[in-house]
């Protein structure tokens, strides 16, 4: 394992945001959703895609708060430009469990 210092960690801007829109993403290579996440007044709404269809329905995702990296450069993913990386953890079967918070927070709160 390679160690990082505090300065390296501070470079990664991880914020909490609320999923406000979920659409199917049929053009994706693997099953995925197109998401819009509200990160509050400072950052606004950002688009992303996530391969989380195995564990989550569109209805379950609406209103869910998630943790995302918001300071990666935009990346073209098929027909959309992803503006943030929603974080999650892989289960042994390969499905992804979203990184969430256990209490509601203001959108845009930064991981400390």
In the CATH hierarchy, the architecture is Beta Barrel
Number of helices: 3
Mean pLDDT: 96
Strand numbers in spatial order across the main sheet: 3-2-1-4-7
Characterization of the model:
The structure is a single chain. The protein has 112 residues and is mainly β. The chain has a single domain, classed as OB fold (Dihydrolipoamide Acetyltransferase, E2P) (Beta Barrel), CATH 2.40.50. 12% of the residues lie in helices and 38% in strands. It has three helices and nine strands; from the N terminus they run αββαβαββββββ. It has helices at residues 6-11, 40-43, 58-61; strands spanning 14-24, 33-38, 45-50, 65-69, 75-77, 80-82, 85-86, 88-90, 96-98.
Helices and strands, with pairings:
Blueprint: H1 6-11, E1 14-24, E2 33-38, H2 40-43, E3 45-50, H3 58-61, E4 65-69, E5 75-77, E6 80-82, E7 85-86, E8 88-90, E9 96-98
Antiparallel strand pairs: 1-2, 1-4, 2-3, 4-7, 5-6, 8-9
Summarize the structure in short.
This protein has 112 residues and is mainly beta. It has three helices and nine strands; from the N terminus they run H-E-E-H-E-H-E-E-E-E-E-E.
Name the descriptors.
3 helices, single chain, two-stranded antiparallel sheet, 5-stranded antiparallel sheet, mainly beta, 112 residues, OB fold (Dihydrolipoamide Acetyltransferase, E2P)
């Amino acid at each position: 394992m390679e160690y990082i210092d505090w300065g390296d960690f501070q470079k990664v801007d991880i914020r909490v945001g609320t999923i406000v829109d979920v659409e199917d993403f049929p053009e994706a290579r693997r099953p995925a959703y197109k998401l819009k996440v509200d990160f509050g007044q400072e950052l606004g709404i950002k688009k992303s895609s996530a391969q989380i269809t195995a564990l989550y329905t569109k209805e379950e995702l609406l209103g869910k708060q998630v943790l995302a990296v918001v300071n990666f450069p935009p990346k073209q993913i098929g027909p959309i430009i992803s503006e943030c990386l929603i974080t999650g953890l892989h289960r042994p079967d390969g499905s992804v469990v979203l990184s969430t918070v256990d209490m509601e927070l203001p959108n845009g709160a930064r991981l400390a």
